[in-house]
Amino acid sequence: MASPFPLHLMLISFSLFSIFTLLINPSIGSSLAEKHRIKLQNLSFKDGSRPICSPQRPRKEKGELLLELKHHGRCSKPTLNWHEEMQKLLFSDTSRVQTLQALVRTETLETGSLSETRITLVSGIKLNSLNYIVTIGIGNEEKVVLVDTGSDLTWVQCKPCKSCYEQQDAIFDPSLSPTYNPISCNSSECLDYENTLGNFHSCPLNQTTCAYLVTYGDGSYTRGSLGHEKLSLGVDQDDWFKGFVFGCGLDNHGLFGKASGLIGLGRSPISLISQTTSKFGGVFSYCLPSPISSDSSGWLSFGQGAIGTANSSEATAYTSLLSKPGISTFYFCNLTGISIGGVLIEVNYSSNGQVGSLIDSGTVISRLFPSVYKAVKAEFLKQTFGLPSAPKFSILDTCFNLSGYEEVSVPTLRFHFEGGAEINVDESGILYVAERDNSQVCLALASLGSEEEYMILGNFQQQNVRVVYDTKGDRLGFASQVCSEM
């Protein structure tokens, strides 16, 4: 028996019903998008139940030496003013980004059997920073230091200090170390490092040792003398490096928290990676723990074992490390697109002539071209339609008032790279809690000032991802992994 309604009228009726349904319930339209269901209490930074300010001692597993990595932050006291503290952290992050942009435009530096070493990375949230710390040995002393892929020199504060900030560990005294050997300011070695570090006055008046000055993106700096010392990355002598060139910081100022100094994992000849190439082959990796808990740990690994994926939830996928003539320190790769809830937004480099984006462990919030950020923001707002808005917070201008929510559904965030590699951003790297009562919760991405600047992949979006740097193979790898389970 034939239907009493013509087919075309039935189709029109169904279409009108569908449109009406979407109008009264817009969330249905985005229900097919890829989503995370996030409990907001899991996004708020938590003070540890007791001050665990130092990473644990290195340990070996399956032939690898593990250095524990922690987030560097509020070690000695709780945060009294959350809003002010978060603004301060983002302000210093902006200063670092501005300096990185200047450095990549002006830098003009000249450009056996392999072992495996892994050490643990921990969150630095207890030492007033959103960056990461490890424990290393300098001479016969253990020091907690910041980790930075955007700089080269490894240094610690030293006696006699002219101007030193407060640190957790005792200040290193080179006069008490039998393995310390200063570098003469008139030596050819000093001249070589003068060129590498960009110092032009390495032999100041009445000084016999090789002087250095290194400034960082947030305005921090270290000034002192270069010397040779034993570097220990593990408990075994196989993991010691005699004659390691480092900086003895005598005048240090800035946002180093209570860390004793910093290890530079950049690409120039003075970096830790370059100085240990004969043993580790220029390969290292890290897995950054979430900064939410100050007790969470990740790890830093050196050598071919850093490429392994035994504890990863997916195989490591690689993209090319790009070479930039005249730029020796930084790591560049080709970011080709960003997906919001499965919707791809392509990156177009042709408009500014730049090729490649920086990946940096010291920058917190990823920075995008204004055109890319505008498209990402529009898609994110489209897929979070109905969430109440909130004022911008510092560099973050896509914010929501979630004070009445216990959990929220947000689109997934994925970075795409040349060659097919991807970073599936962990749910802890999508939203940034600016206010503890959740009245300001923002998308953890920011826009650059212009299309001519370099995009930067920051550490907030690298949480719970194994990132592999193969400097000899000129490749960069990614694999999702729960860092705290290593």
Automatic annotation (TrEMBL):
GO molecular function: aspartic-type endopeptidase activity
Protein name in the entry: Peptidase A1 domain-containing protein
Residues annotated as the enzyme's active site: D148, D360
Annotated keywords: Signal
InterPro entries referenced in this protein's UniProt entry, alphabetically: Aspartic_peptidase_A1, Aspartic_peptidase_AS, CND41-like, PEPTIDASE_A1, Peptidase_aspartic_dom_sf, TAXi_C, TAXi_N
Family: Belongs to the peptidase A1 family.
Signal peptide segment: 1-29
Domain annotation Peptidase A1: ranges: 132-479
One BP annotation, GO: proteolysis
CDD domains to which the protein is assigned, alphabetical: cnd41_like
UniProt-listed PANTHER family: ASPARTYL PROTEASES (PTHR13683), PEPTIDASE A1 DOMAIN-CONTAINING PROTEIN (PTHR13683:SF827)
Keyword presence, Manganese: no
Taxonomic classification: Eukaryota, Viridiplantae, Streptophyta, Embryophyta, Tracheophyta
